[in-house]
Each structure stands twice: as structure tokens, then as C-alpha cells.
Amino acid sequence: MDEVSPPRAAGLDSAAARGTAAAASPGPTARVAATGALAGREPFGPFPASEPAAPARDAPAGAGRPEGRTARKRRAIMETATELFLANGYQGTSMDDIAAGAAVSKQTVYKHFADKEQLFAAIVIGAAARADEFVGALPGALTGSPDVRAALLELARHYLATVMQPRQLQLRRLVLGEASRFPGLARAYYERAPGRVIAALAKLGRRSGRGELRLDDPVMAASHYAYLVLGVPLDRAMFAGAEHDFSTGDLDRLATAAVRVFLAAYGQPGPAGSGPAVAGL
After folding, report:
1. Three-state SS at 84
2. Which residues pair with residue 213 across a beta bridge?
3. Fewer CB atoms inside 10 A, N or C side of the chain?
4. What is the 3-state secondary structure (H, E, C) of 218-280?
């Protein structure tokens, strides 16, 4: 007989908070590498090529040490749960299915996660945490290059390469599909991933101080930049299947067009900004 979940009196806001701690050591399936490159392209500028694996919580200290048995079981549970939630949705996945797929007892699953809601929250919050590395690289990407146009184009390419990965898109669809059931968790995902990226992109205001951009409202400008870069491919990909149909060339053209339009709106005339020179971007 399948499990009966306890009442959701505390709501998903509390589950999201529990999931933050529970996602401290997400497994490989729960981590989608931020490659820093489109297919066949070398990593861009200051962005790392991939996300380093997070150490298991109970793994012995030191490089190269094997993870402990408890950490392996937790990783197997999260990997299996992720695959089942993506394939069957929240309602279509049971703790019995997860235990069987992870080759552990249901008691072991409950030892790590109080209920299915907490496990789901841990996976979603763990997915949102993938934005950390991208956000961490943004200050250098936004201000490091003396050429604002080149910096924005490199950033747009990396932004697309990070977000348009098939597994990342699947996880985003899953969060959106369950948003009405778990609004607190969906809100937490937005605040920890897209919302944090927008806030970090607002550091474009520093280039306004250098006379390269005209940004009266850096946060609004950052939102415009994000939607110019991601709006078309992400909107279409949300309605696609497991794989989107954008080629490397398609994404590169979208990045170029996004920067051209952004600089037409916010660039300063002359060599450092947009002006007439942007027409040939």
C-alpha cells in the first residue's frame, strides 16, 4: 500500500526551508553542469567549464576520499526521485517507487526525508542552487572586459548555454507544473535562481558609472537584458519535449541580436557604447 502523506499544514514554504538543508549534497543527477559553452564552443572568459562536484555530507575530509554509505544512499534516493518526478510528475511518483528504484528500503528513504514533499523540495532547491556558480562569475564578466559590447555578448552566450540544457529545462517545467500545488516552493525557486541572476545582472550599473551605458534603473535594464537573451528560446523550449530544437548557430544569433537591441536602448553613443557602430554587431 502506498504511503499516505501527512497534512500540509505548514505549507511548502517550510518544506522549501527544509529542502535547502536537505539539498546540501545533491547527487550528479540533481546537479546539471553549467558548461560555460554551447556545443562545440570553448568556455567563455571567466566562466568555469563545469560545476565542481559537491562533497558528500558524511564523506571523510580530503581529496579523493570515497563517499560514505549513508551519502551514497542519499544520492541514490535523490537521483532516482529526480528521474521519477521528471517522468511521472509529483502525483505520479510514490515513495515506494523511489525506494525500489534506489534499491533501498522505504524506511531508509524516510530516514533521509520526512515525506515526499520534503524530498521534492530538496530536489527543487538543489536545482535552484545551480545558479550560485553562474551568479558568482557575473561581477567579473560584467566589469572585467574594457569592451562592453564584447562582455555582454560573451555573457549572453554563456547565459544561454547554462539555461538551455535539456535537464535544466525539464526541471524548470517540473517546477512550473507543480507551482499551483506548491506556490511557496515555486516562489523559492524563482528567488534563488532567476531572481538572483537578475539582481546580479543589475551590476551592469557599474558600467553606467564608467560612461559606457545609460542606466537610470539598473534592475529594469537587467530584466530587459535577461528577457532579450532568454525570452524567445526559453518560452519555446517550455512547450517542447525533452530536447529543444535550437542549434548552436540559432543560439549564437539570438545572443547577438539580444546585445544589439540592448545596446540600442541603453548604450552610450560612440565607440564605448552602441551608437551607429552597433548596427554591425
Report:
1. helix
2. 267
3. N
4. HHHHHHHHHHHHHHHHHHHHCCCCCCCCCCHHHHHHHHHHHHHHHHHHHECCCCCCCHHHHHH
- Does residue 29 register a pLDDT over 60? no
DSSP-assigned beta bridge partners for residue 267:
213
The pLDDT score that the predictor gives to residue 275 is 45
Which runs of consecutive H residues, i.e. helices, occur in the chain? Answer: 11-22, 69-88, 95-102, 106-112, 116-128, 131-143, 148-163, 166-177, 183-192, 194-201, 205-209, 218-237, 248-266
Cα 221 to its chain centre, rounded Å, is 21
3-class secondary-structure state, position 187: helix
Residue 14 to residue 16: CA distance in whole angstroms: 5
CB count within 10 Å of CB 87 equals: 11
Residue 31 confidence (pLDDT): 31
> pTM here?
0.70
Sketch out the chain's domains with CATH numbers.
11-56+64-280 (1.10.357.10)
Confidence of residue 271 (pLDDT cuts 50, 70, 90): low
For 1, other C-beta atoms within 10 Å of its C-beta total 4
What is the predicted pLDDT for the residue at 155? 93
Q: Are 19 and 118 in contact (CB under 8 A)?
A: yes
Looking at mean pLDDT, say which of 18-27, 163-172, 265-274 comes out highest.
163-172
Cα–Cα distance, 177 to 90 (Å, whole number): 9
Q: Which three cell numbers stand for residue 126?
A: 538543489
Confidence of residue 37 (pLDDT cuts 50, 70, 90): very low
Phi, psi at 213, each rounded to 5°: -135, 160
